[in-house]
Amino acid sequence: MTNKKVSKETGRYxxxxxxxxxxxxxxxLQARGKKVQxxxxxxVSRMIKLSVGxxxxxxxxxxxxxxxxxxxx
Length: 73
Known about the structure:
Largest sheet: 3 strands, antiparallel
CATH architecture of the largest domain: Single Sheet
Order of helices and strands: HEEEEE
């Protein structure tokens, strides 16, 4: 039996990279999956990330520039 501690989405990194880097990564990963309101149609959903800072609404396919890791304006 092993006493392996798993911590959320960054548990896959194990003991590598340091705690500070894993905490920052966890914050980014959690913010990335949040639902936000589309600036065009107003629907609240998870936006599709096309590239760094470019997001698209899955309903109306409106493409806009947001933040690098989150879809908020």
